[in-house]
From TrEMBL:
The modification 4-aspartylphosphate is found at residue 56. InterPro entries: CheB-like, CheB_C, CheY-like_superfamily, Sig_transdc_resp-reg_Me-estase, Sig_transdc_resp-reg_receiver. Keywords: Chemotaxis, Cytoplasm, Hydrolase, Phosphoprotein. Phosphorylated by CheA. Phosphorylation of the N-terminal regulatory domain activates the methylesterase activity. Its main location: cytoplasm. This is Protein-glutamate methylesterase/protein-glutamine glutaminase. GO terms for molecular function: phosphorelay response regulator activity; protein-glutamate methylesterase activity; protein-glutamine glutaminase activity. One of its GO terms (biological process) is chemotaxis. The gene is cheB. Residues 5-122 form the Response regulatory domain. One of its GO terms (cellular component) is cytoplasm. PANTHER family: PROTEIN-GLUTAMATE METHYLESTERASE/PROTEIN-GLUTAMINE GLUTAMINASE, PROTEIN-GLUTAMATE METHYLESTERASE_PROTEIN-GLUTAMINE GLUTAMINASE. Involved in chemotaxis. Part of a chemotaxis signal transduction system that modulates chemotaxis in response to various stimuli. Catalyzes the demethylation of specific methylglutamate residues introduced into the chemoreceptors (methyl-accepting chemotaxis proteins or MCP) by CheR. Also mediates the irreversible deamidation of specific glutamine residues to glutamic acid.
Length: 372
């Protein structure tokens, strides 16, 4: 089989050397070139036509974000960002994902010898995944429908955010406070979650989210989601009561998020146990807690992501009477997690991303859970 051809873009000669060594040590990958700044990278992309680009965030002459934005508008291609896993780096990397980067990895440390193989497996796995992922050109934000949610009030039902394939119109005033929406995602999930939350009214049922994300990114991600959503978006804390109009995001890397019953209320429980399916927070852990403690009062949603985390838990939710939705293959960056959930037989609806929020809201209002 042909090797995946990689162009490494980083202003540090040492980093270019380290990344090249890591990538070239793998039989199915090869570094076809390196570049020390975006201008050299632009020329080498034309000359070498690589399959995947690894891109540093901070570079001379033109920063990585500006280069990425231009690249995804004019010559979209799979990009894996190489970023410092710090709070400052997190905000920049999340913006890179908005511009169309497929995923990100941390910068390798100089003294990487002790963790070389672990790091190599991560970056090489993400390069392989990026080579197979769907890449979409960057759309000028000015051409998008205005985000009603930024007003922090319940938006009116708008035809602008509803596709023809979605259910008929319904009331935006929810009569029940017991419904809970549980969402799981991984690769591509930060942008998919953003799309879902942008369409949610301020009085929507409580939402809990498990997104595979590093601890340093968690606060920045929560803050970004709170800015674009009419709902109040919080990083989940132990004992938080799950209320309508609120979104609770699992803390990155440090804890699993579970939903448990406390009398008549649903509350968040954080567990620092071992990773499940290599992840903490794990979508399976969240979905299993929903199946056990919420049952038919829940709606489960599994979005784009690599791997199979969440597939078993979604099947348990389905068997417990919850309604379940998987993002479709066409709109997913990576149809790993949703595809596995479908294979496990735990999915009621397979929908394009833009149709999921209207479907959630419709199902919350509908007395017949299988009405379409």
């Amino acid at each position: 089989m042909a090797k995946i051809r990689v162009l490494v873009v980083d202003d540090s000669a040492l980093m270019r050397q380290m990344l090249s060594k890591i990538i070239n040590a793998t039989p199915d990958l090869e570094v076809v070139g390196t570049a020390g700044d975006p201008y050299i990278a632009k020329r080498k992309i034309k000359e070498l036509n690589p399959d995947v680009l690894t891109l540093d965030v901070e570079m001379p002459r033109m920063d990585g974000l500006a280069f990425l934005r231009n690249l995804m508008r004019l010559h979209p291609m799979p990009v894996v960002m190489v970023s410092a896993l710090t709070e400052k780096g997190a905000d920049t990397t999340l913006q890179a994902l908005e511009y169309g980067a497929i995923d990100y990895v941390s910068k390798p440390k100089i003294d990487i010898a002790d963790t070389f193989y672990e790091y190599a497996n991560e970056i090489n796995g993400k390069i392989r995944m990026a080579a197979e992922a769907k890449v979409r050109p960057l759309i000028d934000n000015k051409k998008l429908v205005p985000v009603l949610a930024t007003l922090k009030v319940a938006p009116k039902f708008s035809a602008d955010i509803i596709l023809e394939s979605t259910p008929p119109a319904f009331s935006r005033h929810f009569k029940t406070t017991e419904k809970i929406v549980a969402i799981g995602a991984s690769t591509g999930g930060t942008e998919a979650i953003k799309t879902l939350l942008m369409g949610m009214p301020a009085n929507a049922p409580g939402i809990v989210i498990s997104q595979h994300i590093p601890a340093a990114f968690s606060t920045s991600f929560t803050h970004r989601m709170n800015q674009i959503s009419a709902m109040q978006v919080l990083e989940a804390k132990e004992g938080d009561v799950i209320l309508p109009g609120h979104v609770y995001i699992a803390p990155g890397s440090s804890h699993h998020l579970l939903v448990v019953r406390d009398g008549a209320r649903y509350v968040c429980h954080l567990d620092d146990g071992q990773p499940v399916n290599r992840h903490r927070p794990s979508v399976d852990v969240l979905f299993r807690s929903i199946a056990q403690n919420v049952g038919p009062n829940a709606i489960g949603v599994i979005l784009t992501g690599m791997g199979d985390d969440g597939a078993r838990g979604m099947k348990e939710m389905h068997d417990a009477g919850a309604l379940t939705i998987a993002q479709d293959k066409e709109s997913s960056i990576v149809w790993g997690m949703p595809g596995e959930a479908v294979n496990w037989g735990g999915v009621d609806f397979i929908l394009p991303l833009q149709s999921i929020t209207p479907k959630i809201l419709f199902l919350c209002e509908s007395r017949d859970k299988f009405m379409q």
